[in-house]
Amino acid sequence: MESRSTYKVLMWLVIRTFSKEDIGTYTCISTNSLGKAEGTLRLYGKYYSPL
């Protein structure tokens, strides 16, 4: 029987109150004894000022 070491990488970004300053590129980097995981996302959007 073959032994495999598997794991999942889960990253998320929560923006509770969106503003135009939130638009841009975000990078998440995690390092531990198993190695390094890295993810990058680009947040696009149109900002509409509340009335």
From TrEMBL:
Gene3D superfamilies, alphabetized: Immunoglobulins
InterPro entries cross-referenced by the UniProt entry: Ig-like_dom_sf, Ig-like_fold
SUPFAM superfamilies with a match to the protein in the record: Immunoglobulin (SSF48726)
Record-given protein name: Immunoglobulin I-set domain-containing protein
